[in-house]
Amino acid sequence: MRRKTQEKKEEILKAASEIFKEFGFERASMSKISSRLGGSKATLYNYFSSKEELFFEVISIENAQESDFVHKVIDTKNEINDLPTQLYKFGKRFLNFVYSKKMIEIRRLTISQSGITDLGKITYKNRVLKSQEILSKYLNKAIEVNKLKKTNTDLAAKHFFGLLESEILYPFLFKTDEKFTEKQMNEMAKKAVNVFILAYGI
Q1: Which InterPro entries does the protein's record reference (predicted)?
Q2: Distance CA 154, CA 135 (A)
Q3: How many beta carbons lie within 10 A of that of residue 59, not counting itself?
Q4: Average pLDDT in the chain
């Protein structure tokens, strides 16, 4: 088995990023990426099991800074002094990131590929569930410091994400072309927090 190196992985990701941008996800292929790289498909598959996995890695790296900014506010290392305010900060960052033009395009692509390729499953496992897990751990800490009532935090995290997107998800899914401003999304986050605290607050 060929020895994997970080340098080679970065070369693959760079070539893949170029191909995805030039051809789009559907027309891109492992053959095109390996040709751009100047190697074989076997080398690619030594690092990534599929085009879908490689694509997810590329977009994750390209959006890592924004994603880290969103989740930083619910890092369990943070003190929980004012839970509603901290959840509001997280909520508005989340909505403005997920419904940015760039992320809307990626999200639509992912949904369109669900059931056709494994891109949807990969994204759900590594992005959606990961975000829920991070929030669940934060809510557990809130319970420990008596900021929330004792509850199933995995379920509570799902409820909070559902509340955040309650006014915007269907217009997005059905492409109503309704535009939401940053101010409107911030207001959505505020209302989501209010309902969440009514349900789970002490």
Answers
A1: Homeodomain-like_sf, HTH-type_TetR-like_transc_reg, HTH_TetR, TetR_C_Proteobacteria
A2: 8
A3: 19
A4: 95
Domains and CATH numbers, the chain: 6-50 (1.10.10.60), 63-200 (1.10.357.10)
95 with 185: CB under 8 angstroms? Answer: yes
Question: Is the pLDDT reported for residue 3 higher than 70?
Answer: no
What Rg, from alpha-carbon coordinates, does the chain have?
Answer: 19
Q: pLDDT grade, residue 39 (50/70/90)?
A: confident
Burial of residue 94 (CB within 10 Å: 0-12, 13-18, 19+) is buried
**Amino acid identity, residue 50?**
S
- Alpha-carbon distance of 48 to 76, in angstroms, equals 31
Structure tokens at 126: 């590594």
User: Taking the model in full, what pTM does it have?
Assistant: 0.92
Helix (H) or strand (E) holding 18: helix 6-27
In Å, how far are 16, 21, 73, 105 from 24, measured between CA atoms? 11, 6, 33, 11
- 113/124 Cα distance (integer angstroms): 12
The answer, yes or no, to whether residue 2 has pLDDT greater than 60, is: no
